[in-house]
Amino acid sequence: SLKDLKSLAIAGWQGSGKTMSTAYIIASSVLAHGAQVYVVDPHKNHAEGLYALIKPLESTGHVHVINPFDTPTLIRNLEATLDRRLAGKEPSEPSILLVIDELASLAKMDCFDVLVGFLERCTEETRKANITFIGGSLKWTARHFKGRADIRGCMNSMLIHKTKPSQADLLLEDAHDKNLVKQIQRPGEAILSTDFSAAVLISMPFCARKDMETGAAMVKEAHGAAKLPRLDVETERAAAVCHDEAVEPE
């Protein structure tokens, strides 16, 4: 379940199925749980990016794509929601899913340390509050995250597609789990490793734009059109603490 995942790192080469896996989890979370999903995609305008694939889900009202420059405001709002839910001032339903694609790109933002602090809370506290984080990146070496190797420790779950052995070694501690990566043969196959069960080789469904359109129609039928809480976005203020290069492709 989303609660069990807490915080999920998705790794893999381009073409390994990383984007499709992320889209599938988003669509499944909305359809199965009526989740509220906030997506930060620095490469939003890329034809093969995450946003291009999940765009049909926006019409459900359950999925909201955030400008990377507004990430600080989004984190502040989610921190406040987490505090209210833990204090019993707000119900822990529906599920909230924060997805950041190309996570390493956001490491160039001055607010990155604030984000890492929130990720630590995701691993330690958010299960009770029903808030889950998913972060995708091609590379997980510390130098791609402002030297902060501790970001890997913030993730209690890993979904690792075909990647360099050195990258898999960074995310997996057990020798048996690392050996499983060698069994990945096709796009969509991945190793799912969590802190509550043994690592397994899985095959994620192949998701296309048409599947997202079908999923959106199913969500509307099952849950109706939702309206996500309006973020108190102050773009000018948020942009003041970020750099333009944060949204440039690596």
Kindly describe this structure.
- The chain has 250 residues and is an alpha/beta fold.
- Helix content is 38%, strand content 16%.
- It contains eleven helices and eight strands.
- It has helices spanning 2-5, 18-33, 50-54, 71-86, 103-106, 112-124, 126-129, 165-171, 175-180, 209-223, 235-239, and strands at 7-11, 36-40, 63-66, 96-100, 131-137, 157-160, 189-194, 200-203.
- It has an eight-stranded mixed β-sheet, sandwiched between helices.
- Strand 2 (36-40), helix 3 (50-54) and strand 3 form a beta-alpha-beta unit.
Name the descriptors.
single chain, 11 helices, alpha/beta, disordered C terminus, 250 residues, globular
Mean pLDDT: 84
Specify Rg, calculated over alpha carbons. 17 Å
Range of helix content = 25-40%
Order of helices and strands: HEHEHEHEHHHEEHHEEHH
| Strand segment count | 8
How big a fraction of the residues is strand? 15-25%
Largest sheet: 8 strands, mixed
Category from helices, strands and their pairing? alpha/beta
- Uncertain segments are 233-250
Strand order of the largest sheet: 3-2-4-5-1-6-7-8
Shape: globular
- How large is the count of helical segments? 11
The N- to C-terminal Cα distance equals: 32 Å
Give the gist of this structure:
With 250 residues, the protein is of the alpha/beta class. Helix content is 38%, strand content 16%.
